[in-house]
Every structure is written in structure tokens, then in C-alpha cells.
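> example.struct
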């Protein structure tokens, strides 16, 4: 028996010695976050470089391999040596053109590991690690070198070996859409996942996995390794020929990011994704203006109007002017007109060949633009590719030139439908290049972008602040014609999709049970619709309902008054998938948004964040005693009280309910 046990021990130790995930006994390099809570250890074994992440001395990621595999060259991973290591610390601040906070601190410690192959052809690889107080990021750099001039990457061999089989909120790996409901499961139940996705650990801390500075590279999904409960590998979106990346050297990958915080609500305050992007490239930003807008949009989704021509055509000159008049009267800065241009009829046949410069006969673009300017309203243009990107690119310059000539400074773009040419994906490198080209061409003409069916946000709004907002989510329109979004959906989004960046969810539906047949509805109360304007951040924020549903409705005053650009954000209380409460400040005014899932909920919100010795006038919009999620979801109570930093607000929400608060200080 003793000999048998010794044999087993020898076998196990030998296996570990030669296993690919074998770890040297001591880290070759280490970096800590400025506060010392996060640690990145770097190991170099013969098979692959590895990194390990610890938080408060607890393992977040077990040693995980790094490297590349190429089409016509050996893998760049094994048998490497460290040439040198660089370490530095940066602590700066910058002012966003717009955002959730007026000032952003960028404080990190950085470690660069310069690697070189031991054998021919002695290729070079740099690994860059950054440790922030709220997370870790790393990227690959293939520097200029005689041994490589261009690469075709067939696999980025990045591993994420999570320490425990914890709970995650995630959507499936989909190369063309992020418009899914979130699942809540153990990591071991995931096959593939789009980022960002978020993990709640048994120890209580929270991890969000994403990427930053996605430029000329495909989006990263993660695939769980077979027979490994918690081990994941990066899976890049491919070209039609299955190559993942086609690039010249030098090559710099996006950052692979793990935001790590002690409590879920801290995710709402993180600027890590933005900080990993380059500074603003637009010198004159005076034309970049966050705003609220209304538009001819919801009516098409519920079948009242159509995008295409005919008796129900939505985008007519007369209707556009009605929306402009409404916006001017109600302090709404913009109006979006969809379906104004010829070609929507072709989409009915599945072809989608549009003109982005020629209006339908019942829409006079120049007259509508003139009328909007006269009323002081910003017209928001619209360009829907329908997935036919070559056709859109051929007209892109002329279409943007037209908007520039008419003084239109914002465009909503769309990519609904199957991608053309066949084999390309919405999230592949070819489309990442396209999305960036649109942003840059728009910037040349002082045009802001709101992208639908987009690539996920990765913080480029810092570099190109005309990239205002984007969809990339299962948004409000799903309530119009599908099973709808369940009550918990918007209590998950702030900790998943919105961690990546601004979210054009298009809230503000007042006619909650709009469908006479009862088949479709919005799965919230009216008060929750108001609270979403604070909870779900977007610098371009739509009041999405038909304007006739806003008339003579006192609750619309909150939408009139709520900003879309903030000086300070303060997360208050949160539990992923259950409830969210956040306060945001603009000037002297504070706004609070609180929402719940399918369960009624009561909360207490201490107002200690208010400036001491000031009295604020609080307008409170909330579920009333008569509000019922099923039978009376539009009932709302609007009350007024005076408060100070010593007070506490009581929140009582019905199922899928909410509370929206405007706190005003007059300066007296």
C-alpha cells in the first residue's frame, strides 16, 4: 500500500510539473494597485507566459496562459525569456466633454514585460499590465521587428481561470447581436459569453469582464473550456475565412479588463474602461451637446406608423413639424425622424437598397431642417444600413455632407438585419473598422453618433466624444412586439451592459398597456419609467412615447427637467437583478432614480450626500397606493417636501416600480 501511495504521489506531481498551467514557484514580476488591494503576478514557464490576479489576498484568477496562434507561422507562446521589465506609476486627472462625472482620476501602476523567443526566429512580444484600485487590465503588443511584418491570427490564447464557480449574469456569445435577456447561472453553466458579463463571488466582491480601446481588432467573446468548470478562453469574432485578425506590425490589441470592486454598486462609478482609451482627439467640441429628444419611432414599433411609404408612413413633413413644436414647448432639445428617405420599401422584399440623401415625396428634408432651426430644435438624422454595409459606405460621404449642409449635428445609425457581404459579422474586425470610420467621418463634419446594432462600447467616447451613445442591448422596442423585457431586466443592465458605456435604452413610455389586445405591454410602472432616466445613463436620452401620450401629463415635468450630462454620480444602494438606487448631480440640483424588480420593495435613502446647512425642494414621483403593476401601472403620486442632508427619503415601490426625485437648491 505504501508503495502504491508513493506511486500515485509521483504520478500527480509529474503531471503538474508538465501541465500547461504549471506555475513557477515564484512570480518573476509583480505589480500592485495604488491602494495595495489588487495584485498581478506574472509567471513565465516553458509552455506559456501566465498572469494571476489577487484581491485582498484572495485569488481572483488562477495562473492563466497568454499567447497567439498564427495561420502560417508557429505559435507565439512557448519557450520565451524576459528581456527586461518596466514599471511606472501614473496619477493624472482629465475632464470629459460629457459624462457621469465632471472630473475623472486616472491612477494606476503599470508593468511592461518585454519577451523574446529563445529560438529562431527570436520574435518579440510585449505584455502590458495595469493595476487600478478598481480593476486590472492587460494587452499584447507585437512591436516592430525584422522577423514579422504582418500577421494573420487564428487564435488569441488568452485564458481566464476563475478561482471559484461563482454566480454570473451573462448573455450568450453572439457574433451579430447583444439583444438578449441576461441569464443568472453558475460559471459552469456557460458555454460562451459576450462581454461585459459580471460575476458575484461568494466572498462578496464583484467582477466585470470586458475589453477597452477596441480598435482595428475583432470583438472578444469568451468560451468555457471543455471539462473545466471555471476556465475560459478568448474567442475572437472571425472573418469569413475563419481568420480572426489581419494586421500589419506593429500591432496593439485591445485591453482585456477585469473590474473588481467590493460591492456591486461601485460598478456604477467606475471609469476604468474610459481611462484605458486615448485622450480626446477633437479640438473644438463646442458642437457636441448632450440632449433629450423625441421622435417618430415608437409609433412604428407598435404598428401605428410605418418606416416605408404608404398611407401609414410615419415620417411626413406635417408630423415632423408637430414633433418639433412639441419639443420646443416642452424643453426637449432634439427630434429624431426615422423613415424619411427612399428605399425602406425595398427592405420589405429583403433586399434593403436605400438612398440616404433622397426623401420620400411626403417629406421635405430641407423644410423640416429649416423649421427645426427656427424653433431652436436640433434635428437628428437617421441612416439605416439594414446590414448592407457596402451600399451604405458608398453613400456615407454624401449622406454626412448633406446633414452638415443643413446644420444637422446628430445622426442615429442602424445595422439591423443580416450582414452583407455574406460571412461578415457585426462584431468582426471588418465591421469594427467600419464603425470607427463612421465616427471619424462624422467628427470631420461636426456630427454626433447614436449607433444601433453596434459594436459594444469600449470607451472610445474619451477619444472620439462625438460617439455619444449606442444601443447594443435588448431595449424598449422589445416590449412593442415580443414577449417583452421582464421587470428584472433594467435592474441587471447597470451592472452588465452599462458598465461598458452609455446605453440608448429609449425609456419614457407613459402608455404602459398600449396594446388593446393585451398581448404586449411595458413591464414597469410609470414611476419606474421616470427613474430610468437617472439609472440608465445616456447623453442622448429619448422620451420614446408618442407625444400625444405626454400631453396633459404632470409626470412629464420630470423628463423636461432631468439632465443628460452630469457633474457627479453617487451610487446609493444596489443588488444585481433586484434593485438599484443612484443619485446624480448637475450644478446645485440632485436627481435620484430608484427601481425594483418583480418584487415590491421598501427602502430608506439617507440624504447625507447633500450639502450641509442647505434646504432643498424635493419633487418626488413615485408609485401611489393605487398603483398596481397589472391593473393600474400608470397611477403615480407626485409630492413635494423640503429636505436637508439630515433627512431620509422613504421609498415604497410596487412590483416593477420606482421612484424619481428632483432635489432643487435655489441658492438662498
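> example.seq
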Amino acid at each position: 500500500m505504501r508503495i502504491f501511495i508513493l506511486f500515485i504521489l509521483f504520478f500527480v506531481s509529474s503531471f503538474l510539473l508538465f501541465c500547461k498551467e504549471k506555475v513557477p514557484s515564484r512570480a518573476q514580476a509583480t505589480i500592485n494597485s495604488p491602494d495595495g488591494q489588487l495584485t498581478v503576478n506574472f509567471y513565465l514557464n516553458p509552455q506559456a507566459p501566465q498572469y494571476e490576479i489577487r484581491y485582498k489576498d484572495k485569488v481572483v484568477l488562477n495562473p492563466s496562459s497568454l499567447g497567439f496562434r498564427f495561420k502560417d507561422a508557429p505559435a507565439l507562446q512557448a519557450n520565451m525569456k524576459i528581456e527586461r521589465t518596466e514599471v511606472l506609476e501614473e496619477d493624472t486627472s482629465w475632464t470629459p466633454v460629457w459624462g457621469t462625472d465632471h472630473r475623472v482620476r486616472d491612477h494606476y501602476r503599470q508593468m511592461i514585460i518585454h519577451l523574446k523567443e529563445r529560438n529562431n526566429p527570436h520574435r518579440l512580444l510585449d505584455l502590458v499590465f495595469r493595476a487600478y484600485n478598481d480593476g486590472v487590465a492587460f494587452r499584447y503588443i507585437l512591436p516592430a521587428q525584422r522577423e514579422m511584418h504582418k500577421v494573420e491570427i487564428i487564435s488569441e490564447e488568452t485564458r481566464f481561470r476563475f478561482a471559484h464557480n461563482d454566480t454570473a449574469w451573462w448573455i450568450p456569445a453572439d457574433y451579430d447581436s447583444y439583444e438578449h435577456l441576461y441569464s443568472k447561472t453558475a460559471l459552469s453553466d456557460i458555454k460562451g459569453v459576450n462581454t461585459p458579463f459580471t460575476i458575484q463571488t461568494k466572498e462578496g466582491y464583484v467582477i466585470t469582464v470586458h475589453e477597452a480601446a477596441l480598435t482595428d481588432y475583432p470583438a472578444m467573446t469568451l468560451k468555457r473550456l471543455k471539462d473545466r468548470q471555471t476556465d475560459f478562453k478568448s474567442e475572437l469574432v472571425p472573418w469569413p475565412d475563419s481568420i480572426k485578425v489581419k494586421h500589419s506590425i506593429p500591432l496593439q490589441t485591445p485591453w482585456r479588463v477585469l473590474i473588481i470592486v467590493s460591492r456591486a454598486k461601485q460598478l456604477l462609478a467606475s471609469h476604468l474602461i474610459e481611462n484605458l482609451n486615448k485622450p480626446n482627439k477633437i479640438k473644438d467640441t463646442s458642437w457636441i451637446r448632450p440632449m433629450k429628444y423625441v421622435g417618430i419611432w415608437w409609433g412604428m414599433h407598435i404598428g401605428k406608423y410605418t418606416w416605408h411609404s404608404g398611407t401609414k408612413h410615419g415620417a411626413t413633413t406635417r408630423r415632423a413639424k408637430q414633433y418639433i413644436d412639441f419639443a420646443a414647448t416642452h424643453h426637449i432639445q432634439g427630434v429624431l425622424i426615422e423613415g424619411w428617405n427612399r428605399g425602406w420599401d425595398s427592405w420589405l422584399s429583403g433586399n434593403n437598397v436605400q438612398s440616404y440623401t433622397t426623401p420620400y415625396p411626403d417629406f421635405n428634408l430641407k423644410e423640416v431642417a429649416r423649421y427645426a432651426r427656427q424653433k431652436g430644435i436640433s434635428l437628428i438624422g437617421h441612416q439605416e444600413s439594414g446590414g448592407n454595409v457596402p451600399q451604405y459606405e458608398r453613400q456615407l460621404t454624401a449622406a454626412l455632407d448633406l446633414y452638415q449642409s443643413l446644420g444637422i449635428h446628430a445622426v442615429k445609425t442602424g445595422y439591423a438585419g443580416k450582414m452583407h457581404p455574406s460571412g461578415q459579422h457585426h462584431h468582426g474586425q471588418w465591421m469594427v473598422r467600419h464603425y470607427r470610420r463612421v465616427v471619424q467621418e462624422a467628427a470631420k463634419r461636426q456630427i454626433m453618433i447614436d449607433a444601433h446594432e453596434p459594436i459594444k462600447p469600449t470607451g472610445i467616447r474619451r477619444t472620439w466624444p462625438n460617439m455619444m451613445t449606442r444601443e447594443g442591448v435588448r431595449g424598449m422596442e422589445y416590449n412593442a412586439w415580443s414577449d417583452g423585457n421582464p421587470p428584472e431586466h433594467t435592474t441587471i443592465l447597470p451592472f452588465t451592459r452599462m458598465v461598458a458605456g452609455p446605453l440608448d435604452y429609449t425609456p419614457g413610455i407613459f402608455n404602459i398597456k398600449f396594446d388593446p389586445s393585451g398581448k404586449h405591454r411595458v413591464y414597469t410602472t410609470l414611476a419606474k419609467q421616470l427613474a430610468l432616466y437617472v439609472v440608465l445613463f445616456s447623453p442622448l436620452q429619448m422620451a420614446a412615447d408618442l407625444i400625444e401620450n405626454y400631453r396633459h401629463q404632470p409626470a412629464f415635468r420630470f423628463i423636461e427637467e432631468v439632465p443628460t450630462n452630469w457633474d457627479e454620480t453617487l451610487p446609493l444602494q444596489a443588488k444585481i437583478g433586484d434593485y438599484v438606487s443612484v443619485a446624480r448631480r448637475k450644478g446645485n440640483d440632485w436627481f435620484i432614480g430608484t427601481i425594483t424588480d418583480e418584487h415590491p420593495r421598501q427602502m430608506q435613502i439617507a440624504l447625507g450626500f447633500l450639502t450641509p446647512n442647505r434646504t432643498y425642494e424635493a419633487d418626488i414621483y413615485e408609485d401611489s397606493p393605487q398603483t398596481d403593476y397589472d391593473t393600474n401601472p400608470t397611477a403615480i403620486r407626485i409630492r413635494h417636501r423640503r429636505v436637508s442632508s439630515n433627512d431620509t427619503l422613504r421609498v415604497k415601490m410596487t412590483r416593477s416600480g420606482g421612484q424619481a426625485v428632483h432635489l432643487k437648491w435655489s441658492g438662498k
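> remarks
The mean pLDDT is 95.
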